[in-house]
Every structure is written in C-alpha cells, then in structure tokens.
Amino acid sequence: MSRCRRRFKGRGWTPLSYAAAHGLVAAIEMLLARAVVDAGSQSIYALTPLFFAVVNQQAAVVKIFLERTDIDLDPSNRLEQTPLFMTAVYGYIDIVEILLKTGRGLVDAIDARGTCSPIM
Q: Which InterPro entries did the record assign (predicted)?
C-alpha cells in the first residue's frame, strides 16, 4: 500500500470525505447514488463528510447533504461540536445560513469544554 493511501485510510477518510472536503460535486453525487457508501462514516476525529464540507467552505456540497434524509445534521466530533457549531466558530456565515434554513441543526450546542455555540 502506498504511503499516501496509508495516510488517507489511517485517518479514517473515505472517498466521500475527500470529495466533500474538495467540493467534488459530481463525485459526491455518484458516490451517494451507490448503496455501499456510508454518508455518516467518521474519521479518527469523528468528522463526517458533512464536517469536511463545512470546514472547507463547500456550500454546494453542504446543500447536497442537506437534501438527503439519511444524513445526520448534528453529528458531534470528538469535542462534541456539531457542523453548525464549527461553521459559527470559523465565521462561515454563508454556510451558517444554509444550515439554519433547514431548521434541523442544534443552535444551542455546548462542546466538551463547556463552550456555547457562537450562534446563541
């Protein structure tokens, strides 16, 4: 196995995670069409493909994930932060607005360190 592939797999990234982080919309649509892809898979830091899209400011990808009913919008990473929490912390207002419009994200989240969501 190549060094690059070991690094990719060793961190728990999936092809869907990689595509989400890099905004590869066509690849995401193709992967989600396949029944074998787990859209809720987590990296070693408990980051889902939605997290990768959010922290890399991939608004088009976030919208694709939000259209699906099989994707949890409030997964928590190892610090118990949700995607909405993270986008607010990073100041990605456009993605915060996209997430808030769904009405499905936790606005009043508190992370493992006791930090309240900046949205509150």
A: Ankyrin_rpt (IPR002110), Ankyrin_rpt-contain_sf (IPR036770)
Q: What is the rounded average pLDDT of the residues 43-64? A: 90
Residues in the chain: 120
For 27-34, the CB contacts below 8 A with 24+ separation are 28/61, 28/64, 29/64, 32/64, 32/68
Distance CA 106, CA 84 (A): 7
Q: How many CA atoms lie within 13 A of 5 on its CB side?
A: 2
Nearest to 72 by CA among 104, 95, 43: 104
Least confident of 22-26, 42-46, 59-63, 112-116: 42-46
Helix (H) or strand (E) holding 101: helix 93-102
Catalogue all structural domains in the chain, each as residue range(s) with its CATH number.
3-102 (1.25.40.20)
